[in-house]
Specification:
107 residues; alpha+beta; 3-stranded antiparallel sheet; two-stranded antiparallel ribbon; 3 helices; 5 strands; 20% helix
């Protein structure tokens, strides 16, 4: 992660017993004249996965179940959009709506 210029970021889970199963890394990236923060949350445990473009990714419904329990960013735009799609029976993986944050930015 350091080679990609990500820094380990402290979370409330770092002080808990067994905290070696979760790490957060962040990086500030310029994008269209602004800067955005990219956060990568890494869970080290057995989880259900699906294949997307030859990559194994965490099954969306399981991943979203961690928010509010193991992860505190349940107000994240992408999390809210994924929840909405799943409630409609739509798989959020590669869905174009996942990158449409306009409804949150205009609030």
């Amino acid at each position: 992660m350091k080679q990609q210029e990500y820094e380990k970021t402290w979370t409330r889970f770092d002080r808990l017993p067994g905290s070696n199963t979760f790490s957060r890394y962040t990086k500030i990236v310029p994008l269209a004249g602004e800067t955005v923060k990219v956060m990568l949350d890494i869970f080290v445990e057995e989880v259900p996965t699906i294949k997307v473009n030859n990559f194994s990714v965490v099954e969306p419904k399981f991943l979203l179940s961690l928010y509010g329990i193991k992860h505190s960013s349940d107000r994240c735009f992408a999390v809210q959009i994924a929840h909405q799609l799943l409630q409609q029976g739509i798989n959020p993986v590669r869905h174009p709506e996942m990158s449409n944050y306009q409804q949150f930015i205009s609030q």
